[in-house]
Amino acid sequence: MSKHKLLVAIFAVGMTAAVFAGCSNEKNTSNGTITSGITLFGNKYTGSYTGELNNGNPEGKGVIEVDGDIVSKVEGTWKDGSLDGKCTITYSDGSIEEGDMVENRFDGEITKTFADGTYNVMNYNSGIPNGAIKYYDSKGTLTDYDWNYEQVPIKKLISQVKDVKYSQLIYYPDNYVGKMIKATGTVESVYEAKINAYITIKDSDGKIYVCKCKNMKVFNGRQSISQTYKVGDKVQVYGYLLKTDMYTHFNDDKSTKYNQYTGTLPYVEVVYSYDVNAGEFNPLNPSYTYEDVAKNPYGYAGMKAKVNGKVNYIELNNKKNTATIKLEVGNKQFYYVNFKYNKKTKVLPAINDEITIEGKYYGIYKEEYIKNVDDIGLVDDDDIEYRYEVYPYINAKNVIENK
Questions:
Q1: Mean pLDDT throughout 22-36?
Q2: How far is Cα 87 from Cα 118, in angstroms, rounded to an integer?
Q3: pLDDT for the residue numbered 206
Q4: Which residues are the signal sequence here (predicted)?
Q5: How does the average pLDDT of the chain come out, rounded?
Q6: FRET label pair with 198: which of 10, 19, 132, 321, CA 20 to 30 Å apart?
Q7: How far apart are the first and last CA of the chain?
Q8: CB neighbours of residue 139 within 10 Å
Q9: What values do phi and psi take at 263, rounded to 5?
Q10: C-alpha separations of 347 from 207, 323, 328, 401 in Å
Q11: Confidence band, pLDDT 50/70/90 cuts, at residue 287
């Protein structure tokens, strides 16, 4: 699927046929055919638009036949001359892309079907592809799975990685900044911050890498697909070299103190990583066990969830009509659940209620607390250390009380 944002603008440049008779009103609506220009994926095309018009601009349902080598036809719902609503793009190679447009951008679930009948499905957020890419054969069987990182499939990024000696990263970092590298080693430390997780790993030669993983759900296309780790795990990491530096804290998270090592270290923004001993997550055959979901929170993100448990804690946000539920499913095993309630919601669960959650996995939730809270009155604010417990997160569609 395209790696670029979808930006569409259409403008009338002349009449190619008489406007067909329509019932005029104060908005001057009609049906007709006009010659129009269209900017699609940053490329401009001209073509013939046929459909509903308002003051000479596309408004309502219509289709434009495009003279171009990439796109041949765009059909959909138009508003004020732009695509807004259901849309189908037909490409010159015979493939078809279908989904919703919001303000000229793909938004929501988009399907691209190829000439041989195979297709893939992914989600867009304001024109940017995010999260999983699901690949299907012509019979509708799921055959492969991938994830987007900055609008590029991760498998494609990983295929571009080349082995680089550690000394090269240290002494000639400018040659590698912004390039994909890989590192294999044992986790020496794990630091959780508000948005990121930072791990330090030591390779077989005793060399240290500082690795930054975005482990809160993000919509800028830079969501790290990383497992959760503990000290002692052997991991394989793929990511972009940001720089090499000495650290007293972790770059953009000054609240996370860092003084375990001295000297210049490579700093990597992780795109993909996994526990070598546990193995990579297999999205074609997920187990749905708590242990597997907790280990692979963004592997499961977007998959259907159905979980039974006991309400350990619940907090209501009456302004947003949302409830946050901490659901206990085993010994020290918890899910955090977001649930939007409304007038049709009969009963909200209470603490210790047994309930069933139905919805979708959404990554992780970080439960924040302050280290040494009993001593908080004895220290300056700058000395406060925030800590986080990490749990799998579910967006619930239904909350059912088990009676």
A1: 69
A2: 20
A3: 93
A4: 1-21
A5: 84
A6: 132
A7: 46
A8: 8
A9: 105, 170
A10: 56, 12, 19, 9
A11: very high
Q: In the structure encoding, which two tokens stand for residue 12, read together? A: 């009338």
Helices and strands in the chain, H and E counts? 4, 26
pLDDT tens column, 354-400: 999 999 999 999 998 776 555 445 455 555 667 889 999 999 999 99
Closest by Cα among 179, 233, 187 to 210: 187
Q: In 3D, which of 79, 95, 96, 98 has the Cα closest to residue 87?
A: 98
Distance of CA 318 to the CA centre of its chain: 28
CA 226, 228, 232, 233: dihedral to nearest 10 degrees?
Answer: -50
Sequence length of the chain is 403
pTM: 0.81
Complete DSSP assignment for 7-51? -EEEEEEE-SSPPBP----TT-EEEEEEEEEEEETTEEEEEEEEE
CATH class in words for 8-140? mainly beta
* Domains 8-140 and 157-275 agree in fold: no
Q: How far apart are CA 122 and CA 148, in angstroms?
A: 9
Of 198 and 386, the structure prediction assigns the larger pLDDT to 198
Tokens read off for 320: 């947003």
Instruction: Provide the CATH topology of domain 157-275.
Output: OB fold (Dihydrolipoamide Acetyltransferase, E2P) (2.40.50)
Task: Determine the 3-state secondary structure of 193 from DSSP.
Answer: coil
Nearest by Cα to 223 from 195, 244, 251:
195
Sequence letter at residue 37: G
Tell me whether residue 339 is exposed, middle or buried, using C-beta atoms within 10 angstroms of its C-beta: 0 to 12, 13 to 18, 19 or more.
buried
Name residue, tokens 């989904």.
99
CATH code matching the domain that covers 290-401, chosen among 3.50.50.60, 2.40.100.10, 3.40.50.460, 2.40.50.140: 2.40.50.140
Q: Are 275 and 295 in contact (CB under 8 A)?
A: yes
User: CB–CB of 231/188 below 8 Å?
Assistant: yes
DSSP secondary structure letter of residue 69: S
| Residue 203 to residues 83, 187, 208, 236, Cα–Cα distance (Å) | 51, 9, 7, 10
pLDDT, average across residues 25-30 = 66
Cα–Cα distance between 305 and 302 in angstroms, integer?
A: 9
Cβ burial, residue 175 (10 Å; 0-12/13-18/19+): exposed
Mean pLDDT of 261-285: 91
CA atoms within 13 A on the CB side of 198: 21
**Domain locations along the chain:** 8-140, 157-275, 290-401
